[in-house]
Specification:
This protein has 316 residues and is an alpha/beta fold. It has 10 helices and 13 strands.
């Protein structure tokens, strides 16, 4: 114990900051049909490949992404991905590989080929979309679900730094109608306990989607609203008066002062603004370090609309 205290373990490395995806971690993206799960997962892939912030979460550096797509026809999936890729730096595609395998049958030789491809590409992030097409087991059975997880851990995860899978909600019935967020995920509760982070989507179409977060390695975070912009990319939506006149007034009173996340959060609380440190982090573009932004610069960004998309949510 003395040696452990003298030599503390280094903090986990962020693939996406704010506790969303860390090295060795698993992220689940879940939600109903046609809400935009695959679209959001593709956007996440491009953000990681290009080092671009993802819905207010910082991506520290460009990393290699392998997207294993098992649902849509290859030509549709690839065109979809290429269209979205036009919103990111031109060389981002060098870090992004999408494999569409719609005839996947989960045979042993197919698994061997997938492992070979993964070993060759050596991705930092592996995305599986969707989970149910990858296996032939009963997702409602605990042991069968654990067997699938063991297979993913042994065949895929040794060759990547983090893993993302897209999952679907259970069909609405008397048992599921009152569930919220990740509790609506189909199958055994194992699928909700395995991930280190969960993004649970709800809504009826991609133009207005609520995202609930369960982050095992970060403070609690309230839900956010996202919507599909004209360029085909999801953006955070200012649906509840995200950046208020009150915030602008407070910042204008501190002209020339530089704030980091903690300092701005403490100031907001002292002025009676109900918020959380994570929401302040979103205003500062997801950076949680000591780097700050001068108040007058922040006001300018807000007034020109560059930060209007970040949701400012109270802790009620």
């Amino acid at each position: 114990m003395r040696e452990a205290r003298a030599n503390p373990l280094p903090p986990p490395v962020d693939i996406i900051g704010g506790g969303l995806i860390q090295e060795g971690g698993v992220l689940e993206i879940t939600g109903p049909e046609k809400v935009g799960k695959s679209h959001l997962a593709t956007q996440l892939a491009w953000c990681v490949a290009s080092g671009t912030d993802f819905l207010g979460f910082a991506v520290p550096e460009p990393l290699k992404v392998f997207y294993f797509q098992l649902e849509n026809h290859p030509s549709i999936a690839e065109e979809w991905s290429l269209q979205m890729g036009r919103n990111f730096p031109e060389n981002s595609g060098e870090n992004f590989t999408m494999l569409s395998w719609t005839e996947w049958s989960a045979a042993s030789d197919e698994h061997e080929h997938l492992v070979e491809l993964t070993q060759t590409f050596k991705p930092d992030l592996f995305i599986l979309d969707p989970l149910y097409q990858y296996h032939t087991k009963n997702e409602n059975d605990n042991e069968a679900s654990r067997e699938v997880i063991r297979q993913i851990r042994s065949l895929i995860m040794p060759w990547c730094r983090a893993f993302v899978f897209v999952h679907h909600n259970a069909k609405d019935n008397q048992d599921t109608q009152f569930r919220r967020g990740s509790q609506k995920s189909s199958g055994s509760g194992v699928w909700g306990r395995w991930p280190s982070s969960i993004m649970a989507l709800s809504g009826y179409n991609p133009l207005s989607v609520t995202v609930e977060f369960i982050l095992r390695n970060a403070p609690p975070m309230g839900p956010v609203q996202i919507g599909l912009a004209d360029n085909g990319v999801f953006e955070l939506v200012d649906s509840r008066g995200a950046v208020t006149d009150e915030l602008l007034h407070i910042l204008e009173q501190h002209d020339g002062v530089q704030f980091n996340v903690k300092e701005l959060f403490d100031l907001m609380v002292s002025k009676g603004v109900k918020t959380s440190e994570r929401n302040v982090s979103a205003i500062l573009n997801g950076r949680n370090g000591n780097d700050g932004l001068v108040a007058e610069g922040l006001v300018k960004h807000i007034k020109t609309g560059r930060l209007h998309k970040y949701q400012w949510m109270g802790d009620e």
